[in-house]
Design brief:
The complex is a heterotrimer of chains A (589), B (332) and C (344). Chain B has 332 residues and is mostly helical. Chain B has helices at 2-29, 34-37, 45-54, 61-74, 102-137, 142-156, 159-172, 191-225, 228-235, 240-268, 272-277, 283-294, 297-325; strands spanning 76-78, 85-87, 94-95, 100-101. Chain B has 2 domains: 2-101, no CATH class; 103-331, MetI-like fold, CATH 1.10.3720.10. In chain B, a hairpin with a 4-residue loop joins strand 3 and strand 4. In chain C, helix 4 (114-125) packs parallel to helix 7 (162-174). Classes of the chains: A alpha+beta (589), B mainly alpha (332), C alpha/beta (344).
């Protein structure tokens, strides 16, 4: 339900919403990504409201937030990382700027060692200085995996600390202190300089440090699980109240100084997130502009979206942009499933992409057919692929004739798989979330498959259990609806997690594919490359490879919309976080 | 009577114990794995196991139940070092989603749900009973027809529609501040603010329930009116007013106590839809989100248990009340 | 005979229904004086209760159409309970006229104590607090022969047996010294042994309070014990009205004869067979022309010119004080009485 909707629509990395409802969008005009945030007119003061149906932030603890929206929100207001994305619209927003550190990090030892030096004059909300020890302590917390849940695992994976056989780190975090010496070797402090020793070359480690999991935490304030209720601030605001199911109220942190901060320009005096609002009430406020200083944190429901985007008077109160996600169907290529390239291609060509996009809101609002797991917003790493949607036989509404041709080929190349997907008693199973929209979509998929003589069976999974079900190799079907967005502007956060090793995000089970070993070798090589253009070229090749193997079918480059009240100024789309640039929002006088 | 009470209380305790055991067993054998479901976004087998340990699900179900019972009496301790904390007795567990002891969550939510329940209860009884009586007394007249219309609307309009309609209307006429709406205000510090907060939810719930009670009262009053003892009362020379008030209503309303008691008990468990619409942080919202969003076992367990306790206890109260009203069911 | 206390004149009660007008009680006239007991006899649906409820003003006037008169000759002057305002009639109920009902099990309110219910009736017409009411109730219970009245007055109806409850009903009806008591099948729901006790009590009470009593019953056996005069009703009409002896020894209507034949009698030979009256009473919505009893009467063929089928017989006074509604001659009736063995 609604609480997770917040997560599902906005988390930046990883899986996209299991129900299309979150991205079911309406007709209207594509507004540019930059809605001019004219800093000259920005004014200080006032109360900025955020209204949401969710009961709470999934997490507030810096080591535990993991959704682009929440990272952007808390990073803008409460806690600072060593480095940050540039707070600006467009592609420039994906570039790194120093934040707590004096630069964006200095790699050495083939990017296996990274050093950051802290900026002087940065203090906590009680006025005490932010120290290297605070950074080190903050970085240690994600290792306590039985307490610090939900957060990213980059630091746990990459810091030079030995692993146990089950893949867990030998360091158990600052509470148990098991293996503390190992951690103390991996992360060292010398004066105000913190050094990270990594277990591999990690050319874009500084991008990983944009995650608040790498942010400092004062050990004296840590309360384990309960730190999630009241993280200590070194940003321009601090938490006055946070009552789950009620509100979060942020007030100015008087110990913060603009001098020490080149990233944030805090305008409102008060920031209030009101939780638990009925979706209709929340939308009505946006539609009526009855609280003009309120931002709709969840986005309008589809029907309301149509109305809102059709109103020319609201042109300056909305965004319609490509979100960070690619949505696709992951083919389970392990033996006994879709282990036949010709069959996968047949399904691809039979697919009625047009009907599905129309169902979900049309190309203007839902998205456009994609040709790549890497999205166009990763400008450096994206290049159009060949084949798939560029194949002359491809038709957006499906090409059953071509599909039948491919099936005929499959009958010879892999008779068992062919027999299964054409047998009315068997067919292939399609995993999707149990929702009204997906049930409608299944009818369209069924029709397209029927036309090509392919048999499809649907496995509707309750939304809350969707990813945990298809992530279980024993429960996954043949084709699973999924989605992914880059963690930062590098396809290193797309290709490897989706295709290069068995992970809870790799729903292709491609390690069993004969094409896999060569692919993995190339991918591992790319990860270690510090020459960014060379690395990009490698990602492009790997993306082409994945598409040629039809490990994922029919990707959609999806879009997202945001809406806010008429008195909210300074709005822009912060591309790397896939959400508002919260730090520049202000309340118009 | 005392003996009866003791016997009933013992039975109540037994029922509650059985319900708590059943809930444990049911959740232990559900095909879903809470450790996996709440494992978070970066999930690996070792993280699932860590999460299982965190949730206290890495021990057999009887040990989990033992911890639960012990916690009720002695409180519970969680975590290690600086990450440790206590839930004082009676501890119903800890919600890792809401970062709070379940007993605290319940203590926060219960006054909300109770306020909602008691207000709407009084409102719907007043509306339902008076409309029902008027309809019965004016059988076939316009009053009866109007009340039939009310019943039809009330019964056929689900609260998720009537609630939204009422709410949107209230917003339209600026009777509600959507930001402040639903925020808990204690009736002891600000009775007016409290009532203002609850008036529309009360109306929403009362509308749904009053319809049933109107129909029930009407038919009961009509049925009782044809009883011999009403004719006797009339033969005595009593006025119609006295007959209605003293003779008809007492008998006609006695059965209403049973359904009213159970309806009230049900509401105490949480009015899920109404609480969600009006953003009331009550037990209904707490439990439904725990089930649908968070898969928060200690919360689900406690709210289920609590709902069972309300039903069982209200049953006892109803029986005692009934015995008070109807001498025939008094135990010898 | 003194002036009758109650004079019912041409009382007709009908109920409009979807199927037509139900004439439940049709042109009824009778009188009853203080100290006198009039039994109204007939099978169910003959209009006995409807008539008495009309006298008491207990019909819902929205559903009952009532014409005629029921005059109570009170000390303050006569009042017609049919035409008087409901409020006036209400204030006569319980005080000047009282009624007890067939089923004592359901006629008492289950939620109130006996004392409460009697006291309520008393306090309606007497100044006195609840305590006085209970005291009065205790006296009344004592009077109607309920042992341990002081204790039982605080008990609930379900703690009493059927006979005791009927005693309670009688006590409650008599608490205000009414001049008229209508007892509607007061013994029907009771055990046979209890029946006679109740009848005995009624008889004693009548003497004690010098009341006019209307005893409604379908049981001629009951009538013999207590009634002075009897009205026999059939299909909404009085078909015979006479003194008690006349009814038993000189019944002047084939229906009365039939009724007598259907009950066992101590004054007759042993081994006499009881004979049921064949057929069913006619529908009160569409009464046949002529005599209502015609279709069940084994003597109608003796009447010339098919008169029974065409003319409603008048309620004629064949001998003094003995009225009957039959086309048969006295001779024919006499033969009928003998031939059926109704009368020795």
């Amino acid at each position: 339900m609604s609480g997770s909707k917040m997560t599902q629509r906005h988390f930046r990395r990883r899986l996209v919403a299991t129900t299309a409802a979150g991205a079911l969008l309406a007709a209207g005009v594509l507004v540019g990504t930059a809605s001019s945030a004219n800093a000259a007119t920005a004014v200080k003061g006032g109360t900025l409201y955020f209204i949401t149906n969710a009961q709470q932030f999934d997490n507030v603890d810096p080591a535990r937030v993991y959704t682009g929206r929440d990272i952007a929100f808390f990073n803008s207001y409460l806690y600072r990382n060593l480095v940050s994305y540039k707070p600006t619209a467009g592609a420039a927003g994906s570039s790194l700027v120093p934040d707590l550190a004096t630069n964006t990090g200095v790699p050495s030892n083939s990017a296996k060692t990274w050093k950051f030096t802290l900026r002087p004059g940065v203090t906590w909300e009680d006025g005490s200085p932010v120290t290297c020890a605070d950074v080190k302590y903050g970085v240690s917390r994600p290792f306590a995996t039985d307490i610090i849940t939900n957060g990213p695992q980059y630091l746990v994976d990459a810091l030079a600390i030995p692993k146990n056989a089950d893949g867990s780190s030998q360091y158990k975090g600052p509470y148990k202190k098991t293996g503390q010496a190992l951690f103390d070797k991996a992360v060292t402090c010398k004066g105000t300089t913190v050094t990270f020793n990594l277990n591999r070359s990690f050319a874009d480690f500084n991008y990983a440090m944009t995650y608040p999991a790498g942010a400092p935490v004062p050990a004296s304030k840590d309360k384990g699980d309960k730190y999630d209720l009241r993280p200590y601030s070194n940003g321009p605001y601090k938490i006055a109240t946070y009552k789950i199911g009620d509100e979060m109220h942020l007030v100015r942190n008087t110990k913060w100084s603009q001098k020490s901060d080149t990233v944030r320009t805090p305008y409102p005096d008060d920031i209030v997130v009101r939780f638990g609002m009925d979706e209709n009430v929340r939308d009505q406020i946006t539609l009526d502009d009855s609280i003009p200083n309120a931002v709709n944190l969840d986005g309008l429901q589809p029907a309301n979206l149509r109305t809102f985007f059709a109103d020319p008077k609201r042109a300056s109160q909305r965004l319609n942009v490509f979100d960070p996600y690619t949505r696709y169907a992951a083919a389970n290529v392990s033996a006994g499933h879709l282990d036949c390239l010709d069959v996968r291609k047949a399904i691809f060509f039979a697919w009625d992409t047009q009907a599905l996009i129309d169902l979900a809101g049309g190309t203007v609002f839902y998205g456009t057919p994609g040709d790549n797991p890497i999205k166009t917003v990763l400008g450096l790493d994206y290049a159009p692929t060949t084949g798939n949607i560029h194949d002359p036989a491809y038709k957006i509404g499906g090409n059953p004739a071509k599909a039948k041709e491919l099936l005929a080929a499959a009958k010879i190349s892999c008779p068992a798989t062919y027999a299964r997907v054409t047998d009315p008693a068997q067919g292939f199973t399609y995993d999707t979330a149990k929702s009204a929209t997906q049930q409608k979509a299944s009818v369209l998929i069924q029709a397209a498959m029927d036309a090509a003589g392919i048999v499809v069976k649907f496995n509707f999974i309750p939304p809350g259990q969707y990813y945990s079900t298809i992530g279980d190799t024993t429960k996954q079907g043949d084709l699973s609806r999924a989605g992914w967005g880059a963690d930062w502007a590098n396809a290193s956060t797309v290709i490897p997690p989706l295709f290069s090793y068995p992970s809870s995000n790799n729903y292709t089970q491609n390690s069993k594919d004969p094409a896999f070993p060569a692919f993995k070798a190339m991918s591992d090589a790319a990860l270690a490359m510090t020459d960014r253009p060379k690395q990009a070229a490698q990602w492009k090749k790997l993306a082409q490879y994945a598409m040629d193997q039809y490990w994922i079918l029919n990707p959609i480059f999806s879009k997202g919309q945001e809406e806010w009240g008429s008195k909210v100024g300074g709005v822009y789309f912060w591309e790397p976080q896939g959400t508002f640039g919260f730090g520049q929002l202000y309340v118009k006088g | 009577m005392l003996k009866y009470l003791i016997r009933r209380l013992a039975a109540t305790a037994l029922v509650i114990t059985l319900v708590s055991m059943s809930v444990f067993v049911i959740f232990a054998y559900l095909p879903m794995d809470p450790a996996r479901l709440t494992c978070g976004k970066a999930c690996t087998p070792s993280i699932i196991e860590a999460n299982r340990h965190r949730l206290g699900l890495d021990v057999p179900v009887q040990v989990q139940y033992g911890r639960f019972v012990k916690g009720l009496v002695a409180g519970r301790h969680y975590g290690e070092g600086v990450a440790s904390f206590d839930c004082p007795a009676p501890a119903f567990g800890y919600s890792f989603n809401k970062h709070a002891c379940v007993s605290t969550l319940i203590a926060d939510a219960f006054p909300v749900t109770f306020s909602l329940a008691i207000g709407s209860f009084i409102l719907w009884l007043l509306i339902g009973v008076s409309l029902g009586v008027v309809a019965a007394k004016r059988q076939g007249k316009w009053q009866d027809k109007a009340s039939t219309a009310f019943v039809l609307v009330g019964i056929s309009l689900p609260t998720f529609i009537s609630g939204i309609l009422i709410l949107l209307l209230a917003l339209k006429f600026n009777l509600i501040d959507p930001i402040e709406m639903g925020r808990w205000v204690s009736p002891f510090t600000d009775p007016i603010g409290w009532a203002r907060n609850f008036i529309f939810p009360w109306i929403t719930l009362a509308l749904a329930f009053a319809a049933t009670y109107t129909r029930f009262t009407r038919s009961n009053v009509l049925e009782t009116s044809s009883e011999d003892y009403i004719r006797t009362a009339r033969a005595k020379g009593l006025s119609e007013k006295v007959i209605l008030r003293k003779h008809t209503l007492r008998a006609a309303l006695a059965p209403i106590i049973t359904i009213a008691g159970l309806d009230f008990a049900g509401l105490l468990g949480g009015a899920i839809i109404t609480e969600n619409i009006f953003n009331l942080p009550g037990l209904g919202r707490l439990s439904i989100r725990a089930v649908l969003v968070d898969y928060d076992l200690p919360v689900i367990l406690t709210t289920t248990l609590l709902a069972a306790v309300f039903v069982v206890v209200m049953n006892l109260v109803v029986d005692i009340l009934y015995a008070y009203i109807d001498p025939r069911v008094r135990v010898a | 005979m003194s002036q009758p206390f109650l004079e019912v004149k041409n009382l007709t009660v009908s109920f409009p229904t979807e199927d037509g007008l139900v004439r439940a009680s049709n042109d009824i006239s009778f009188t009853v004086a203080r100290g006198e007991t009039l039994a109204v006899v007939g099978e169910s649906g003959s209009g006995k209760s409807v008539t008495s409820l009309a006298v008491m003003g207990l019909h819902d006037r929205r559903s009952a159409q009532i014409s005629g008169q029921a005059i109570l000759n009170l000390e303050s002057g006569p009042i017609d309970t049919i035409s008087a305002s409901p409020d006036v009639v209400r204030k006569l109920r319980g005080k000047s006229m009282a009624m007890i009902f067939q089923d004592p099990m359901s006629a008492l309110h289950p939620y109130y104590t006996i004392g409460d219910q009697i006291s309520e009736a008393w306090r309606l017409y007497n100044d006195g607090d609840k305590k006085a009411g209970i005291k009065r109730a205790t006296e009344m219970l004592d009077l109607v022969g309920i042992p341990g009245a002081a204790k039982r007055v605080l008990e609930y109806p379900h703690q009493f047996s059927g006979g005791m409850r009927q005693r309670v009903m009688i006590a409650m009806a008599l608490v205000n010294n009414p001049s008229l008591l209508i007892a509607d099948e007061p013994t029907t729901a009771l055990d046979v042994t209890v029946q006679s006790q109740i009848l005995e009590l009624l008889k004693n009470m009548q003497k004690e309070f010098n009341m006019a009593v209307i005893l409604i019953t379908h049981d001629l056996g009951v009538v013999a014990e207590v009634a002075d005069r009897v009205s026999v009703m059939y299909a909404g009409k009085i078909v015979e009205q006479a003194g008690i002896d006349d009814i038993y020894y000189q019944p002047d209507h084939p229906y009365t004869i039939g009724l007598l034949n259907s009950i066992p009698r101590v004054d007759q030979l042993e081994g006499r067979r009881l004979i049921a009256i064949p057929g069913q009473p006619p529908s009160l919505i569409s009464l046949p022309a002529g005599c209502s009893f015609r279709s069940r009467c084994s003597f109608s063929s003796q009447v010339p010119n098919n008169l029974c089928a065409t003319a409603v017989p008048d309620l004629d006074q064949k001998i003094s004080g003995h009225f009957s509604r039959c086309h048969l001659t006295e001779d024919q009736l006499k033969k009928a009485r003998v031939s059926t063995g109704a009368v020795l």
